[in-house]
């Protein structure tokens, strides 16, 4: 059975009939609706009861029948009508515009008696509302309002909408509650079982504010957040308090409009609910070959376990393979932002603290980025593909953040620059081949790229084809060894990985993971932004004073770096540490203090940011931030953590291959 006070329910009844369902009756509270939809129902021989409403539902655990009664208007009942058998009652009480966003923009509402719904009145922001959101519930009305407001915007006064063939709908008749029937059986909120009697009790308790009524009765506080109950409850409250609907008002529309899932609230540890896992193209291969996966924003292997190995043994094996032979690393998550346009070089020259204008096409340069306070926020290698085209590499976890940051500068500050930025991180898969034998491995590939030492030096870039696939290759290294970062379209990532693994077997190629890479870069003294820096670290603390002093053009953070506080010599500076006892591990996060047995409390002179038991050097090494470190080289210090101290020596961050000779192979 379909019960309604408007025309829209007729569509439902006709669709049910067309689908083969039995429509017991259409009960319309209006006395004499007479339009195309009513005629269509009569032609289908569907029972139609106009001027009737539901008096009683019959049935205990389920609906078995409905007792009708004459509707005299405004919810008042007349004579008892027929009893009709049915098992489902579909109810339509009208429509109310979805105005949550409008209200959150500072818009106020008023009640339209003719449409029996709340509609926009005025808004603090420049917002124009058309269509159903404005209470126009028919297609023709939506078109008319859209054309009308559109004409006002473009100043074309005679712009008129097209006529549509939609049937003319009859006016609805408001029906808020049934008079003369037990109110504790008249439900308003079907989720929380709020009845008309609950609203009556709230009125007797002198709760006049609709916000108080909402919380007292819990009306509109369940799954649908009042989408099916609020207007009826407001109308009942208006009748009981002798006020108009606008005087009663509406409850506060608070974000979010859509319900928040429990998975979101529980967090990323609960299955896949919080955020989609980002998987590299070769994810299944890594798992099948012993990769111990960890969530770094992307699921990445920390290391690859072999039978009989523990974590430290696996990391040691992988580091030594890269130092003595050749390893392969999945660098697909590395941030990749394409910057293109006539002003691309000018834009990046403002983004990086070092010079981007002098970089030639086909060459690469390492750069630092700062915020307005001069604090280092990211780093990476940027490549000039053409005069107006760059590829900017960010930290793996910083791609989205830096992309949005660049967009903000372009859209809010530098509107005169003709530059487009596109985040292509997920479009390219990357296989990084690193080690003394890396060149021998890549030369086994079917490619038109010349990988010879003379033709392809360190910090240069080439494009071509590899195994018939378009490829981009960068000579840059985070291990300190000869390295080729090979990028192909993501769909070819697994195929490229497997091909390099196959061709590299003659050279005992071995995959290595993130933890092994961290040990390799710590040996080499390469900075890891966010690990070896904090929210106060500036480029001067990292030893970048000379490149910055040579740059004439302005860049983000330049003025802040001129402050006396940023140029103090006693600031925390990037430095290397070696344990006096080579086999005694330096504690990660340990603080640099005076003396082996200080009197507590004592002041901290800095702290350790990265550590490893170096497989290459066979000793305990680390990196850290220490006060005035560059003037204290070879000074003996003490690292304190958890009640124990470890003696260490301040040294250059570059523990291995200080002259960088191994980078060229």
TrEMBL record:
Domain named SoxA A3 is located at 184-268
InterPro entries named in the record = GcvT/YgfZ/DmdA, GcvT/YgfZ_C, GcvT_C, GCVT_N, SoxA_A3, TrmE/GcvT-like
Gene Ontology MF term list: oxidoreductase activity; transaminase activity
Q: Which UniProt keywords apply?
A: Aminotransferase, Oxidoreductase, Transferase
**Gene3D superfamilies xref list:** Probable tRNA modification gtpase trme, domain 1
Domain Aminomethyltransferase C-terminal stretches: 573-657
Q: Which residues form the GCVT N-terminal domain?
A: 283-550
Which SUPFAM superfamilies does UniProt cross-reference here?
A: Aminomethyltransferase beta-barrel domain (SSF101790), Folate-binding domain (SSF103025)
Keyword Lipid biosynthesis assigned:
no
Task: Report whether Thylakoid shows up as a keyword of the record.
Answer: no
Task: Look up the domain of life of the source.
Answer: Bacteria
PANTHER family per UniProt:
AMINOMETHYLTRANSFERASE (PTHR43757), AMINOMETHYLTRANSFERASE, MITOCHONDRIAL (PTHR43757:SF2)
> This chain belongs to which protein, by name?
Sarcosine oxidase subunit alpha
Organism per entry: Oceanicoccus sagamiensis
Starting at the broadest rank, the lineage of the source organism is: Bacteria, Pseudomonadati, Pseudomonadota, Gammaproteobacteria, Cellvibrionales
